[in-house]
Amino acid sequence: MAAEVPGERLGRVFQQRLNALVDRSARQGAPVSNAEMARWMTEHGFPITPPALSMLRNRPGARPALRTIEGLAAFFEVDPAVLLSDQDVRPALAELHADPAAEAVAARAAGLSPGSLAAVRALLDQLRANEGLAPVSG
């Protein structure tokens, strides 16, 4: 059996996780494009081009910079560990869209400005506190 190239396993994990997040966004509405992700990331201090995102999503062995991982995590509103974890994150991803009512709220939030999203998060945090639910990190 040939030895695995260092970083190859983690690269595959990253690629699978990134594509799972893109797939999840497609289930919440129109599929997100590499151009949309690149535009948002660049506007928020994580410069990247659509071809670079395409390479990360499709080319085996692609290795993203930490800043790119941070930007993608910010774009999808997940912990960066979701993109790198060897542990099975399918239950966590499934939980994000298992509740149709919660998914409907997420779909309505898609495309809002960062300021509007912050207001929505603050409102949801207050509603959770009013109902005695634990705070959500992230």
Give a summary of the structure in a few sentences.
It is built from eight helices and no strands.
Which residues form runs of ≥5 with pLDDT under 50? none
Beta-strand proportion: under 5%
Structural class: mainly alpha
Please outline the major beta sheet.
Answer: none
| Count of DSSP-assigned helices | 8
Sketch the topology as an H/E string, one letter per element. Answer: HHHHHHHH
Q: Based on DSSP secondary structure assignment, what is the total number of beta strands?
A: 0
* Overall form: globular
Summed over residues and divided by their number, the pLDDT gives a mean of: 79
Distance between the termini: 41 Å
Estimated helix fraction: 55-70%
Evaluate the radius of gyration: 16 Å
Summarize the topology.
Elements: H1 8-27, H2 34-43, H3 50-58, H4 66-76, H5 81-84, H6 90-96, H7 100-109, H8 114-130
Helix pairs in contact: 2-3
Structure, described:
This protein is mainly alpha-helical and 138 residues long. Helix content is 64%, strand content 0%. Helix 2 crosses helix 3. It is globular, with a radius of gyration of 16 Å. The protein starts with 7 loop residues before the first helix and ends in an 8-residue tail after the last helix. The model has no long low-confidence stretch (mean pLDDT 79).
